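User: Before I run my own analysis I want an independent prediction to cross-check against. Here's the chain; please return only the structure tokens and, at the end, one sentence I can use as a sanity check.
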Amino acid sequence: MTQYLFTTPRLGFRTWQSFDLDDFAAINSDQEVMRFFQKPLSREETQAMMDRMQRMFEEKGYCYFAVDLLETKELIGTIGLGWKTFESDFTPCVDIGWRIGKTWWNRGLASEGALACLNFAQQNQITEVVSMASIGNTASIQVMKKIGMDFWKEFDHYELKNFPNIQRCSLYRIVF
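Assistant: Structure tokens:
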């Protein structure tokens, strides 16, 4: 039986396992899912991301978690917290993010999962969480609003300087 760190009525949050690679690689290689990222990820890049998330969980006690749909035990993607240190006036910081396979879009799962992650952050004495998305990513910005985050500012994301079509980002935050 799968051990979850926490659950919502529909979702289970856990650390990454080797059996997640095929499903997560399929999500990360989808052009539509990755539209607001630098590029789709290869299987090797997906494995490296999973490895980074495991290390982050071991070091910080949080990461972008593997998220299962409880009803079917299918991996739907990732929702969770990350530690951001890229060059900006608001880093280092904890951010919240999500990447869900398009099969599961428009069901309220990102919002449900993100709210659970904000609760997890609070329980772990994290006092501020930010979230960022390219200004054209209206679906993610809508999730930020839906989970109670407030618009902070727009900024040019340093790590996206070679991707001008997605570099301008909206930054939201919530303080507990």
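Sanity check: Helices lie at 21-28, 43-60, 109-123, 138-146, 164-167.
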